[in-house]
């Protein structure tokens, strides 16, 4: 690039760095909320490095936990959720997400313990109720699962997943939609 201006060279270097991080945004908080798990891990890691409070650390670690769940890296998810809980044991989402990770590791009993902790802090967290119902089903506790599905419908009467599962458990026929990753116990295709 003989004769190229220094600004052009710097600009090209910046473009090559951005191209290497496709999917990453300039804002760590946006990346931490990204629908792309790898971008979320990077963004949440950057937020963690900038965190000044225990709650900020918990939020960043919990974001990484959820990204690991999306990648079906459940052991890594548990590790990040454990760190989030150590940072702020009053942050209910970390307990919920660790429960989902335990479900992915095929440990519904541990998942239920964490779902109970999350619900103790946030009783109307319908996603936690849905996940706890699935964990109860994995353990064969149909009555407890039915109670959770009923509670979901009290909070969200339009929730088709709870309605279908409850109909099936009551003997009302097959669910209206097939079981898929979105309504599996851990929410990912790598587990049931």
Automatic annotation (TrEMBL):
<dbReference type="InterPro" id="IPR050498">
    <property type="entry name" value="Ycf3"/>
</dbReference>
<keyword id="KW-0732">Signal</keyword>
<keyword id="KW-0677">Repeat</keyword>
<feature type="repeat" description="TPR">
    <location>
        <begin position="92"/>
        <end position="125"/>
    </location>
</feature>
<dbReference type="Pfam" id="PF00515">
    <property type="entry name" value="TPR_1"/>
</dbReference>
<keyword id="KW-0802">TPR repeat</keyword>
<dbReference type="Pfam" id="PF13428">
    <property type="entry name" value="TPR_14"/>
</dbReference>
<dbReference type="InterPro" id="IPR011990">
    <property type="entry name" value="TPR-like_helical_dom_sf"/>
</dbReference>
<feature type="repeat" description="TPR">
    <location>
        <begin position="126"/>
        <end position="159"/>
    </location>
</feature>
<protein>
    <submittedName>
        <fullName>Uncharacterized protein</fullName>
    </submittedName>
</protein>
<feature type="signal peptide">
    <location>
        <begin position="1"/>
        <end position="19"/>
    </location>
</feature>
<dbReference type="InterPro" id="IPR019734">
    <property type="entry name" value="TPR_rpt"/>
</dbReference>
């Amino acid at each position: 690039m003989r004769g190229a201006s220094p600004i052009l060279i710097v600009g090209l270097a910046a473009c090559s760095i951005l191209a290497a991080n496709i999917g990453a945004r300039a804002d760590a908080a946006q990346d931490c909320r990204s629908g792309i798990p790898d971008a979320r891990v990077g963004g949440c890691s950057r937020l963690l490095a900038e965190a000044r409070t225990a709650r900020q650390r918990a939020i960043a670690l919990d974001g990484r936990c959820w990204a690991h769940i999306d990648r079906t890296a459940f052991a890594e998810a548990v590790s990040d959720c454990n760190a989030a809980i150590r940072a702020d044991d009053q942050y209910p989402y970390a307990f919920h997400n660790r429960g989902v990770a335990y479900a992915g590791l095929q440990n519904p009993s541990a998942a239920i313990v964490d779902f109970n902790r999350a619900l103790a802090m946030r009783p109307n967290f319908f996603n936690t109720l849905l996940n706890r119902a699935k964990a109860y089903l994995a353990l064969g506790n149909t009555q407890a699962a039915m109670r959770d599905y009923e509670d979901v419908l009290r909070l969200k009467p339009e929730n088709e997943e709870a309605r279908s599962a409850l109909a099936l458990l009551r003997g009302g026929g097959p669910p209206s939609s097939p079981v898929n990753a979105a309504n599996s116990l851990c929410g990912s295709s790598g587990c049931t």
